[in-house]
Design brief:
mainly alpha, 334 residues, single chain, MetI-like fold, 0% strand, flat, 16 helices
């Protein structure tokens, strides 16, 4: 290789290094300009009162408030988890947020499922039954009713909307006594039907599916399916249902939680402990110590409460992405 060629090669390498250095310098200057623009935008947002979600400003105050709120929400769960590991003696003699002398979590779990001939297992099965039939039926009715109200036009549609809004504003506890009197006339009290039939109605779920169906299922898609010869049932099950998945999961979670945590309705409807759900059964155990000759079993109540909330926690964690997107439906106008 000649000396001229080598010199030419060295000059080329020098030029490449110079270009790389210039590119790095230009990138640094660009990053500085972006940071300055974002800072200026945050200042403008603070003055106008509006924030840009793509360029959020950091707030120490909001971070502290969110941390306090998180501690407030997690505190009951931490209390249950700690005290479920204690014996009855440790529960009454040790600090509430400290562990006892004996780690008795497994013993407490075994005792919960064997105490009073395993009545806790019966309560758990009853709750599952009420959730599957009651909450499942409420979700199905809400899906079909909401879809029909959103995609079909018929006389009285506005009246139905007004009735639904009015029903949402009525607290469920106000309807418990009239429901009890009605079921007493039908001789359905102290039966599973007294829990299942009222649970089949979810006005909020119907309203939620109405709004979600109106936005998630394009009318043009339904018209195309009808032109291709698809019937209404086929259009609903094969085309609309997949699009409604986030709303369905959100509605299902709301109805499941409402049925799982229902307390006042079974309290007035059920007298036979064999049909109790978990809420009434655990409350009966809690009040056992106040009866004549009753035995205090707070450790079993705490352990049973911890077991009770675990299915709900698992359901929320597994379906989190669906119900979050379902709750956000309608928040943004396209």
């Amino acid at each position: 290789m000649s000396s001229a060629t080598m010199a030419s090669g060295r000059m080329t390498e020098a030029e490449l290094r110079a270009q790389e250095k210039a590119a790095r310098k230009a990138e640094k200057e660009r990053q500085k300009r972006i940071a300055a623009d974002e800072k200026a935008e945050r200042k403008r947002a603070e003055k106008s009162g509006f924030a840009n979600v793509n360029n959020p400003r950091r707030s120490a105050l909001m971070t502290v408030i969110c941390a306090i709120f998180a501690v407030y929400c997690l505190f009951p769960f931490v209390y249950l988890a700690i005290n479920a590991t204690k014996t009855q003696a440790d529960f009454t003699s040790t600090f509430g947020l400290g562990f006892g002398k004996t780690f008795a979590l497994w013993d407490n779990i075994v005792t919960v499922f064997t105490y009073q001939d395993g009545i806790f297992g019966r309560w758990f099965i009853n709750t599952i039954l009420y959730v599957l039939v009651g909450a499942g039926g409420a979700t199905l009715l809400a899906i079909m009713g909401g879809y029909a109200l959103a995609k079909f036009r018929f006389p009285g549609r506005k009246l139905v909307f007004a009735v639904i809004i009015g029903a949402i504003s009525v607290p469920g506890i106000a309807l418990a006594v009239p429901q009890f009197l009605l079921f007493a006339k039908l001789n359905l009290t102290n039966t599973p039907w007294a829990m299942i039939i009222p649970s089949l109605v979810s006005t909020f779920g119907l309203y939620l599916m109405w709004i979600f169906s109106d936005q998630a299922v394009p009318d043009e898609l339904l018209e195309a399916a009808r032109v291709d010869g698809a019937g209404e049932f086929r259009t609903f099950f094969q085309i609309s249902l997949p699009l409604l998945a986030p709303g369905i999961v959100t509605t299902a979670l709301f109805t499941i939680v409402a049925t799982w945590n229902n307390y006042f309705l079974p309290l007035i409807m059920l007298k036979d402990s064999n049909w109790y759900p978990l809420t009434i059964g655990l409350n009966q155990w809690k009040d056992q110590a106040s009866t004549a000759g009753g035995q205090a079993i707070q450790n079993l109540v705490i352990t049973g409460s911890l077991i009770t909330i675990i299915p709900l926690v698992i359901a929320f964690l597994c379906l989190q992405k669906y119900w979050q997107s379902g709750l956000a439906a309608g928040a943004v106008k396209e």
